[in-house]
Amino acid sequence: MKLWVDAGRDRLVVVAEDGSSFTKKVNQKLSVNELEYLAMLEGIKYAKDGDIIYSDSKLVVNQLLGLFKINYCHLKKLCERCTIELKSKKIRIFWIPRKKNKAGNMVANQKRKRVKN
Questions:
Q1: I need a labelling partner for 41 at 20 to 30 A (CA). Which of 31, 87, 89, 109 fits?
Q2: How far apart are CA 25 and CA 48, in angstroms?
Q3: CB neighbour list of residue 9: distance below 8 Å, 6 or more residues apart
Q4: Domain layout of the chain by residue ranges
Q5: pTM listed for this prediction
Q6: Options 3.30.420.10, 3.40.50.300, 3.40.50.970, 3.30.1510.10; which CATH number does 2-116 get?
Q7: 7-59 pLDDT, tens per residue?
């Protein structure tokens, strides 16, 4: 199965290729990169062996693939948690442009709804 993950200012979103999705509210102030890692962790928890996860966070995907250096301890811990889970489930991850991220579209739509209210 294919999954898309993304994070907004205060929520994590996972969208599955069958159309199901879930959003998890985040009640603490975190950096964008921390939120993106947490969104990836939620996707990994939801995924099964052999699934594919797509993210528009080039930093997170490339750090998890070992292509980018991790300069901050708090991101290194999140990366390690993700890596352990990825290996245990044999999940593949890929970077995709923001426009192709179904979870990103959901985050953007939620932002628009908040602005209109």
A1: 109
A2: 23
A3: 35, 111
A4: 2-116
A5: 0.89
A6: 3.30.420.10
A7: 988 899 999 999 999 999 999 999 999 999 999 999 999 999 999 999 999 99
